[in-house]
Amino acid sequence: MSKVIETLDITSLTDKGDGIASLGSRRVFVAGALPGETVTAELFGIKAGYAQGQLLEVLQPSLARREPFCRHSECGGCQLGTLDYQAQLAMKAERVGKALAARGLEADIAPCLGMSSPLGYRNKSLYNVLAQDGVSDIGFFKKHSHQLVAADDCPVQGDKVPALLAEVRRWMQDFAIQGYNEAEHSGQLRGVMVREGRATGQWMLVLVALGDNLPGLDALTDALGKACPWLTSLVLNINPERGNRILGHEERVLLGSAVIEDRLGGLNFALSGQSFFQINPEQTEKLYATALDFAALTGAEQVFDLYCGIGTISLLLAKKAKSVVGIELVEQAIIDARANAERNGIGNAEFHAGKAELLLAELNQQGHNADVVLLDPPRKGCDGAVLDTLLAMAPATLVYVSCDPDSLARDLAKLCAGGYRLDKVQPVDMFPHSLHVETVVRLVR
Fold first, then answer.
1. Beta strand pairing call for 250-256 and 231-238
2. Separation of alpha carbons 331 and 351, rounded Å
3. Which of 70, 308, 382, 403 is catalytic?
4. Phi, psi torsion values for 204, nearest 5 degrees
5. Could you report how far apart the first and last alpha carbons of the chain are, in Å?
């Protein structure tokens, strides 16, 4: 079959970061192409209404195109890695505005809050360990595949990650550790996670194994102690299950403690390998400061924090509110939240484990009400029952923290139809060089 090569004008980006061009009645998606560019691409996966395009050459580059900062662009993690950072921020604010406008919502979108230096920002790295063609290695999945890309020097990861991975790779070679074979559900090591306490300088390394039979763990522990004396915690996590979930439920501490500590907003938090904690410390401070500013607490308010996780923002709210009630589905997160409240000497926050749509209604029926409610749901947004209960409760202020503009716009449309109005909208760049954008919204009755 002859190759199909076309010259294309790129007009916009998908939510995955691929350039979009029109070719007759067909849309063509070209990874690596930027809006405003003219490119040549080889078409594949051709369907009646769309096709994929392999970028061959940029004939007319965007004025915002920059040289890539990473040699591992095939991993697909930094979809906007060749776009000027200020242009990235403008694109993210525009994305939020378009999502709201598509739902008939009008609001002034503040400029997206960015970073002074948008590299090395991640405090957590999760690597796959796979056996491919008889070779086991550590890396990320290539975009749209389960092919491994070894990227120890990823520029958005913490600076000590390469040293840790080098010792793990050396141990794998010395003891013939087999990576995970997905098709056969076999092997020994299926993942490696690195977590950093950015404010404390503490580091955790988690080995995710298929079973509790890894050889040479004592040798690895000794090697890490010598080469990486700053390593605070080495944990073996056992995950014998099939599927995409990386971490299992059983753990064994091999070195140091089961947790590391970090600080946020003047509070101390203990983090296990399983704990949810925002990935970008610098931007998290801005995100939470914005949420607290939007809440406008005076010390007299009863606050509900829905989808509260390990209580990070709940405890920051508690410092300025009369009382805070946190609700979270994951029971271990609630255990961690209560421990974090005790660790920080905060006694005016209580935490409940369960589905937000059920617990919120129960608390409301029991006479608990709220002056301010903070929502920080997963990507899919809020359950409809949560929004219905909030409309019945009618708190004076809602602060919505979202990681997806489309689900945010859907939920805001329902809340605004029920008597709220949009007061402030602030995008925050938590993941530079990706299409991801966080948004903090203030709604008032």
1. antiparallel
2. 10
3. 403
4. -125, 140
5. 62
> Each residue of 249-286: pLDDT tens digit?
899 999 999 999 999 999 999 999 988 899 999 999 99
At 254, give phi and psi (nearest 5°): -100, -25
- Strand stretches in 158-259, DSSP E: 189-197, 202-209, 231-238, 250-256
Q: How far apart are CA 146 and CA 303, in angstroms?
A: 44
Residue 1 has pLDDT above 70, yes or no: no
pLDDT of residue 153: 86
Residue of 144, 141, 137 whose CA lies nearest to 165: 137
Sign of CA dihedral 434, 435, 438, 439: positive
157-194: burial string, b at 16+ Cβ within 10 Å, e else: bbeebeebbebbbebbeeeebbbbebeeeebbbbbbbb
Pairing of strands 202-209, 189-197: antiparallel
- For residue 168 the two structure tokens come to 């793990």
Beta-bridge partner residues of 30: 19, 53
pTM over 0.90: yes
Q: How far apart are CA 2 and CA 331, in angstroms?
A: 57
**The two structure tokens encoding residue 350:** 């209580």
Residue 28 β-bridge partners: 21, 51
DSSP strand pairing (26-30 vs 38-44): unpaired
Output the DSSP codes for 43-105.
EES--SSEEEEEEEEEEE--TTB---S-S-GGG-S-TTTTB-HHHHHHHHHHHHHHHHHHTT-
Short-list 275, 232, 269, 268, CA closest to 253: 232
pLDDT of residue 76: 79
Query: Is 403 a known active-site residue?
Result: yes
CB atoms inside a 10 Å sphere around CB 295: 24
Identify any residues that bridge with 440 across adjacent strands, giving them in sequence order. 401, 426
Q: What is the DSSP letter of 181?
A: B
| Whole-number average pLDDT of the chain | 94
Does an H or E element contain 392, and which?
helix 384-393
